[in-house]
Amino acid sequence: MTAPLAVPPRVLTVAGSDSGGGAGIQADLKTMLALGTHGMSVLTAVTAQNSLGVQGAWELPAEAVRAQYRSVVDDIGVQAVKTGMLASAVLVDTVAGLLAETDAPVVVDPVGISKHGDALLAAEALDSVRERLLPVATVATPNLDEVTQLTGLTVTDEPGMRRAAAAMLSYGPRWVVVKGGHLPGEAVDLLTDGSEEHWLRAPRHDNRHTHGTGCTLASAIACGLARGQDVPTAVRAAKDYVTGAIAAGFALGGGIGPVDHGW
Ligand code: PLP
Q1: What is the CATH number of domain 10-247?
Q2: Nearest residue (CA) to ligand 1, atom 2
Q3: Is 205:16 a contact under the CB 8 Å cutoff?
Q4: In sequence order, what are the beta bridge partners of 54?
Q5: Ligand 1 pocket residue status of 212, Cβ below 6 Å
Q6: Axis crossing angle, helix 144-151 with helix 158-169, rounded to the nearest 10
Q7: Which of 12, 22, 60, 102 shows a CA-CA span of 20 to 30 A to 92?
Q8: Where do the Pyridoxamine kinase/Phosphomethylpyrimidine kinase domain residues begin and end (predicted)?
Q9: What ipTM does this complex have?
Q10: Where do the domains of the chain lie?
Q11: Which long-range contacts (CB under 8 A, 24 or more apart) does 148-152 make?
Q12: pTM over cut 0.90
């Protein structure tokens, strides 16, 4: 008799599609596969996108988002959830309402604007992100532009990252990772829950092909949490994974290429 195959941890991304395959649910599912988990997706929006930018975006009806979520949760079950592009206040409210009911850890990547400057979240959705989504987050992973959008703070150095983390924690996530990758020098992130503080440092790779970095980090954290890791362990491992993926990022099309998941 053959032994039953082990079931991998189940991880769900609630995010938008990037037709170019570099960010969004495509990056999430690649990360989940690379890290030995079963990836599932609730699609929130479809983007027409390539290495040059976002040429179009269409959000799905709230009903379609709710139905996808119910299908996955009611039958398969999830051990961690990651959220990415949520497009509008209606979808932020819908997703926050669904996640308020789950016991699974939730990683919120508060996606606002793409590297090319394309808006992936409507300005009027910021209140919902602060008031409804961040309170259900186990970990929130803003970059410095998203910190500015959400808190009004402009961050230029490590003391500024500490102030940004405190401002983000005031909205209710249990932990925050303030990603300092946009600052010059080492790639420094600050992970804190308001009492513990972990400064995560990695050498900067001189590679402009970094499309999908944020999605990849948040998904990798969710994979660690689905395995039962504590937050600092999951975030450290995710940072290592994304550092390798950035080092291996490659040119594709005429613009910014994706990070690589096969390194
Ligand atoms: N497109 C989608 C669907 C995304 O979810 C994201 C980021 O979360 C992006 C594009 C932006 O990716 P980047 O800023 O790495 O170019």
Answers
A1: 3.40.1190.20
A2: 24
A3: no
A4: 49
A5: yes
A6: 50
A7: 22
A8: 18-260
A9: 0.91
A10: 10-247
A11: 149/110, 149/112, 149/113, 150/110, 150/112, 150/126
A12: yes
